[in-house]
Write the structure tokens for this entry.
Amino acid sequence: MTLRQYYESFERADLIPAWPGPNRSGKGDAFPADEARSNARGMLRGFSGRRVVFVGRGVAQAFGLAAPPLEWTRLPCPGGWYEAAYLPHPSGLNQWWRQTLNTEAAKSFLVSEARRGLEVRRAQVQRAQAVARSLAQPPSDPSAHHLPEPEGCQGPPPLEPEECPAQPVADPLAKGGS
């Protein structure tokens, strides 16, 4: 994957806008869990209908995700639902990345999501181009302005809240976070 493909495939955002300093233990960086949860609540407004990959267990837990790495989970958010998965933090302290099986699974996961992201982006561009063409020419038939949804852009039907309860947010500092 090229850097350009990466940028075209994934949106990126920081949950903690500035480096919080070193961890009190002397290993790694601090993770301000309260700030993370507060910032996560603000970010959820834009998640409805999206797929989100969190980097680090502490970040995932700030959003209420309690699943194992690389496992998609459907979570509620303002306006609907979103799908979330996480990758363990890629710091040198994290032992997860030192197992070949894990790095291969992460590679496969990310390549699959990048391909999916590029396909969704292409569908969005095609739809925008179709709308522009449609609006550029007056239709002979008034119903001609109706454009069907392109394949691959429709999400799964929404679940009822009781089918997918919110998961409790665990304290990422309790186990050292990852």
